[in-house]
Design a protein that fits this description.
The chain is mainly alpha-helical. 47% of the residues lie in helices and 6% in strands. Helix 2 runs antiparallel to helix 7, helix 5 (143-150) crosses helix 12 (307-331) and helix 16 packs across helix 17.
């Protein structure tokens, strides 16, 4: 006999929201919650073991929170009720459950992934069951409001969006409607390197020992996905709301004060610097952006953190995070295929195993492999920049990013990778490509002093690959960037290279490609 259920509320793995709009209308006596660990979500890109364990453990802990609150949860665990015997994707597992339920309506908060939304809409149409989406109230700005802001715009500058968000929310604004401290941002104060003496004693990652639920997940991942990158020997990530709040407090007390000044700094062996590592918790919604911003501002008001650090951090959440979500949904699924530079290459193998003789890349990849994490300069100006200069296909870089980082969610990853990092969108989210020679990394870090390559050289065996690929990249795209005023200085440096020097640079690039694989960037 079929079980009668009025509404089946679907909870995805990145919607572990204790304030979800689902709870505004669900009736525990007549409705059910539905969650599933889906094999396809673990394998459609070759996911880092830590990422899989983080998501599945956080989901199982959220299930426990829901059941303790009196809700009935239809939950599918990998290796028990789904995957092998039921199905490998959302539609197959859901079809199995609806075969034994009489459900009047499927309800879910709008997903942050076009692929998931499309699959469920197709499924609902085939099954002739009503599907209703709820607005995602986790964010500051509703998607319709972003569309209103974006309509008829020729450019999508973060600065314009950020100022609108500050005015709209009143955050870091004076009673007279002026920005706190007299400036909209304090980037000029936020570009310090550590210098030759290096950083002081820096904080380390928080330690959250695995409980029984997490240990079960770790055993599952090691058994089911043994070939995936990364390792789980010392899993210590926060996977509950309580641990997430503790991690937020640790950031504010230990690192927020230095976040601004050293936001762009790199240093060998330092995995965290003054960054927060809260993005994964925000992106699965165990933390709410409002509580993060409110606590950070409270620290400023109490004199525990300087304004340049607080504003810089608020900009990441109120500005950039909301901005990239809006871009993702405004441009739709077609954004994922944007490739303005015609880049074609595969990523070098060291993006998966970290085996390279470039000191900065090796250090960053150790962080990725060990922690499923890298702070934003490691992502943008080390790994992201190398992929750009190498000419990797932007979507392949996006897939790699989705596979390797704990905080990678499609709506957040795509504009960051395809747009900002790889310039695949041709300038929608960034007015110029983020590219530089090896001298940038030398300026911001100590990596070059430990490296066999010399950042000032563009050709020859000792030439820094970043510098070689930088000039080759500019040479290939000089016509495209000729009218971009933000590229004028870089193109003038390129013009100083003689025909012979450029030939030597191209020859060195050919050697690097033979060493690491990958074809030339493009024919464009």
């Amino acid at each position: 006999m079929s079980e009668k259920v009025r509404r089946l509320y679907l909870v995805f793995g990145d919607q572990l929201d204790h304030q979800s709009p689902l709870f505004d209308e669900i009736d525990p006596d007549r409705d059910r919650l539905w969650m599933a660990e889906i094999a396809e979500e673990a394998t459609h890109v070759w996911c880092h073991k830590l990422r899989l364990a983080f998501f599945f453990s956080a989901m199982r802990h959220f299930r426990e929170y829901l059941t303790s609150g009196g809700y009935t949860v239809q939950y599918h665990e990998l290796g028990k009720t789904s995957a092998d015997d039921i199905g490998t994707n959302f539609s197959e597992v859901l079809r199995h459950d609806l075969a034994r339920m009489e459900v009047e309506e499927l309800v879910a908060v709008e997903p942050g992934d076009h692929r998931v939304r499309e699959a469920l809409e197709i499924f609902a149409k085939e099954k002739k069951v009503k599907l209703r989406w709820l607005d995602d109230t986790h964010f500051y700005l509703p998607l319709d409001a972003f569309k209103d802001w974006a309509a008829d715009r020729k450019s999508f500058l973060l600065e314009h969006f950020y100022r609108m968000m500050r005015k709209r929310s009143g955050i870091l604004m004076t009673p007279k409607g002026k920005p706190e401290g007299g400036g909209w941002n304090f980037d000029k104060d936020n570009r310090r390197a550590f210098g030759k003496k290096g950083p002081p004693s820096l904080p380390v990652f928080g330690d959250y020992p695995a409980d029984a639920l997490t240990r079960e997940v770790v055993a599952l991942i090691n058994s089911r996905f043994p070939e995936h990158p990364g390792q789980l020997d010392a899993f210590s990530l926060p996977v509950t709301r309580e641990a997430g709040l503790e991690e937020l407090d640790r950031f504010i007390e230990e690192r927020l004060h230095g976040f601004g000044e050293y936001e762009d700094a790199l240093w060998s062996g330092e995995k965290l610097i003054y960054h927060s590592r809260l993005s994964a918790l925000l992106n699965v919604k165990l933390l709410n952006p409002r509580e993060v911003v409110d606590r950070v501002i409270k620290a400023y008001k109490e004199g525990r953190a300087p304004l340049n650090s607080v504003e810089g951090y608020v900009r990441q959440i109120l500005g950039w995070r909301e901005f990239v979500r809006g871009i993702y949904h405004f441009f739709g699924p077609d954004y994922l295929s944007k490739n303005a530079l015609g880049a074609k290459a595969d990523l070098p193998t060291f993006f998966w195993d970290g085996k390279t003789d470039m000191a900065c890349v090796k250090d960053t990849m150790e962080n990725v492999l060990e922690n499923g994490y890298a702070h934003h300069i490691q992502r943008l100006m080390v790994l992201g920049q190398f992929s750009l200069l190498w000419g990797a296909d932007p979507f392949k870089f996006h897939e790699w990013h989705m596979a390797m980082y704990l905080d990678a969610i499609d709506w957040a990853s795509a504009p960051n990778t395809i747009g900002m990092s790889q310039f695949g969108d041709g300038g929608i989210v960034a007015t110029k490509p983020y590219c530089a020679s090896g001298n940038y990394i030398k300026k911001m870090s100590n990596h070059c002093s430990e490296c066999r390559y010399r950042p000032e050289l563009a050709s020859g065996e000792q030439a820094c690959p970043f510098t070689t690929l930088y000039y080759s990249f500019l040479d290939r795209h000089r016509e495209r960037f000729a009218d971009n005023p933000r590229m004028t200085f870089q193109l003038k440096n390129l013009e100083r290279k003689s025909t012979e020097e450029l030939a030597q640079i191209r020859a060195r690039e050919t050697e690097l490609r033979a060493k690491w694989g990958g074809q030339e960037e493009s024919d464009a």
